[in-house]
Specification:
With 398 residues, the protein is α/β, with parallel strands linked by helices. The chain has two domains: 176 residues, Rossmann fold (3-Layer(aba) Sandwich), CATH 3.40.50.1950; 207 residues, 3-Layer(aba) Sandwich (Rossmann fold). The protein contains 13 helices and 21 strands. The strands form six sheets. Strands 12-11-8-13-16-17-19-20 form an eight-stranded mixed β-sheet, sandwiched between helices. Strands 2-1-3-4-5 form a five-stranded parallel β-sheet, sandwiched between helices. Strands 6-7 form a two-stranded antiparallel sheet. The radius of gyration is 25 Å and the shape is elongated. It binds cytidine-5'-triphosphate (CTP).
Length: 398
């Protein structure tokens, strides 16, 4: 937390007093906290309280430009490491989900590229309203992280969900988030992605439906978290200064590229859909149409993941499995057969999940059995969850 700049958006609800306790806790932990209040929030606690606790001026008015050398909302937005909204009312969630920027808090948020965390607080019926849930889902899909509200006595007299999470809980979530940012720093990750193409002749190949999106999401998230990524892929790769790309086409080329890099890797994620068989003979010239049928003899490709598993490397080894039936049984058998530490299985028979899709749903197994079942989520969000699990299982410091 030391030296981090946190923008704390405070909106109007009885729980504003808890935001004051949070501002104090974050400041004591070394963060540079800048509070932005909605006008309604000032009806519960005065800006002076936040100013005294954070030793920084409090912002409410977009046009109160006290410092002529900067434009406040842009300057603040550019300096932020994290944007927090505590407490968040149903009103501010609606505005954030729809891009409305009618005060200093919202204008700064729109200009801010730092990640956002939101702790909502409102009456339980308001929280359960379809439109509020829709706004929460929209913001979640855009990468905003929510700190769930607790169950308890609400100021309106109801007992139920909607109460702001306790300041200590919010502090811990923020602290965990910052620690996670350094978890992968310098970790050497080797990731494979895409489907291999096994040539039949100069024109034709045997391929599969893998797009490479899951492996590329893992590579991008890992690189953003500070890892040094070696990406061996058959597809158009993502661009990031910490991703080194090796482009391959066939299983044999992928094997060479992987084995060359496997000894120095800390984590290996075999996300690629590697063809189990290749054509026994690759025709030098395009094969002409002859006869009513064409039989192609296939020979087995080496199983790269099994080779890595048998090599007794120091790396944490993660395999993937695409299954169409009896997912748990097949996944556990595969984990043992290929001697990996973690196996991530998805049921590719489901619509909207797996190949080419932007979303995915997986079950994660380790040698102790089922570890985690995800909901249907974007591949980028899933990549974050999977990397967290890998770091936890490998015992990387958090
Ligand atoms: N894999 C590999 N080398 C291969 C085939 C697959 O390294 N020649 C890796 C994949 O990258 C993936 C895992 O093994 O991480 C699972 O691959 P899959 O094809 O589902 O497993 P198989 O052992 O081929 O089992 P089956 O085809 O019977 O489902």
């Amino acid at each position: 937390m030391q030296g981090k700049t946190i923008l704390l958006g405070v909106t109007g609800g009885i729980a504003v007093y808890k935001a004051a306790a949070l501002a104090s806790r974050l400041t004591q932990a070394g963060a540079d906290v800048h509070v932005l209040m909605s006008v309604n929030a000032t009806k519960f606690v005065t800006p002076l309280t936040f100013q005294a606790l954070t030793r920084n001026r409090v912002y409410m008015d977009t046009f109160a430009e006290d410092n002529p050398s900067v434009i406040s909302h842009i300057d603040l937005a550019d300096r932020a490491d994290l944007f927090l909204v505590v407490p968040a009312t149903a009103n501010v969630l609606g505005k954030m989900a729809n891009g409305i920027a009618d005060d200093m808090l919202l204008t700064t948020w729109l200009a801010c590229t730092a990640p956002t965390m939101i702790a909502p607080a409102m009456n339980g019926h308001m929280l359960e309203q379809a439109v509020v849930q829709h706004n929460i889902a929209t913001l979640t899909a855009r990468g905003v992280q929510f700190i769930d509200s607790g169950v308890g006595q609400l100021a309106c007299g109801y007992v139920g969900r909607g109460r702001l999470a306790e300041p200590e809980e919010i502090f811990n979530a923020v602290d965990h988030w910052f620690r996670r940012q350094t978890r992968f720093k310098g970790v050497k990750m080797l990731i494979t992605a895409g489907g291999t193409r096994e040539a039949i002749d100069p024109v034709r190949y045997i391929g599969n439906r893998s797009s490479g999106k899951m492996g590329h999401s893992l590579a991008l998230v890992a690189a953003r978290l500070g890892a040094d990524v070696e990406l061996v892929t058959t597809a158009e790769p993502p661009i990031h200064p910490r991703i080194k790309v090796t482009s391959v086409e066939t299983a044999l080329q992928m094997r060479d590229a992987v084995l060359e890099r496997s000894e120095i890797a800390d984590v290996i994620i075999m996300c690629a859909a590697i063809a189990d068989y290749r054509a026994a003979t690759v025709h030098e010239q395009k094969r002409k149409k002859e006869g009513d049928s064409w039989t192609i003899e296939l020979v087995k490709n080496p199983d790269i993941l099994s080779e890595l598993g048998a090599a007794g490397l120091s790396a944490y080894l993660v395999g993937f499995a695409a299954e169409t039936e009896r997912l748990h049984e097949h996944a556990l058998a595969k984990l043992q057969r290929k001697q990996c530490h973690m196996l991530i299985a998805n049921d590719v028979s489901q619509a909207d999940v797996g190949f080419s899709s932007d979303s995915n749903q997986v079950s994660v197994f380790t040698r102790n059995g089922l570890l985690f079942e995800s909901s249907v989520t974007t591949k980028m969000q899933l990549a974050e969850q999977l990397l967290d699990l890998i770091a936890d299982e490998k015992g990387m410091d958090a």
